[in-house]
Amino acid sequence: MCLAVPGRLVETYREHDVPMGRVDFGGVFKRVCLLHVPEAVVDDYVLVHVGFALSTIDEDEARRVFAYLEEMNRLDELEAGSP
Amino acid sequence: MKYLDEYRDGAAAERLVAAIARTMTRPWTIMEVCGGQTHAIVKYGIDRLLPRDLELVHGPGCPVCVTPLATIDRAHAIASRPEVVFCSFGDMLRVPGSRGDLLQLKSRGGDVRVVYSPLDAVNLAASNPAREVVFFAIGFETTAPANATAIWTARRRGLTNFSVLVAHVLVPPAMEAVLAAPENRVQGFLGPGHVCTVVGCDDYAAIARRRNVPIVITGFEPLDLLDGVLRTVRRLEAGRAEVEIQYARAVRAAGNRSSQAMIDEVFEVCDRNWRGVGLIPNSGYRLRAAYRDFDAETRFDVAGIETRESSVCISGEILKGNKKPRDCPEFGRGCTPHNPLGATMVSSEGACAAYFAYGRHLDAMPIGVDAASTDVARESVR
Ligand code: SF4
After folding, report:
1. How close is the Cα of B362 to the center of ligand 1, in Å?
2. B245 - beta bridge partners?
3. ipTM value
4. Listed residue (B31, B58, B57) closest to B343, CA to CA
5. Domains and CATH numbers, chain B
């Protein structure tokens, strides 16, 4: 029920005076209400739930878990390298 | 798809599992609050990857599941009326009331429609001025901004043929109810990532402090869930009962202020009945007085409908984390997704339905096995 999916904002417009956008979910396009993400601009990734964008995806934060995993890999290599 | 596929990498998952195992010095029990997380955990078998001493218990976070049978019967009473176009999210369609589900009602001529967004229901009302369009407004805080915005939009567009049946529920009071139960075993939480994109982390920080439990606001992909578990275990081991955001690519500590303002404009907090759990004080939203003219219960006079629940079902215990679906003698026998007896079987996010969907009733044990052989059986599936 609380499923929300990230997609790329490709176009913005207004409808009945409410900011709306077209969002690309890997080739599937949907109309999305942007009222609650005034900061979002075209090419941003927005997190969408039941046709509403709830937040914009933070690229730097998105990389964090991978940076952490790389760190673990490096540590393992160091350990493997030492007798 | 970007921001999804990379969070499903098997090798990375193994690294995280190993890190969890290295961090643990004793057994821990962690609850994932949200039904979407439960579904992902069972789907990807994450609970079976984890060290044996780490138990994930499934929380009450499925709004479809916890909507009381009486509310569903009220929905059906409204949807049966000839002048009504009844709109609902797809999840709600197959949830049986006392007499069939909405899909069956549709096949008997009821005008029942699935909408992707609550704004679609508003547009239906605008284009069908002679019909009464009723929207079934269910969900947690995640869905509340969308539903509130739809009602606010209907008011602005002057639509008098639009109304809502509201069954909104709130996560923090349910977590409090879990922790307050004398038999509680939960020591830490994976917090509901999407709920927190809306409301932020303040309420969760307060629970962490008051109840001395770590809460890690976690995403929904396998790596998110494992990362969330690792962070929770670290905090448990260090004795640090605080809130931490794992799902930082989507969640800001303050949440989404615009959504919060919209919720506050349209809804106010009220007591709610949770299917399987019972009444939880201050655990839901209802329409504010200024928006009561949109209330479908009053408009169609169905507030009096009450319904009794099955007495064999233990979903209340499952929702509180005390039992697992396999502990229920009806699981996969008298109770299946086609014929659910209780809350946790009605939607794919309910623990019973998720276990059933991924075949876990097939490795269910005969009833009455003792604890020792239960452990052996658990071991054999790892
Ligand atoms: S299997 Fe069915 S009857 Fe048993 S606890 Fe789950 S929902 Fe209730």
Report:
1. 15
2. B217
3. 0.86
4. B58
5. 64-170+255-299 (3.40.50.11740)
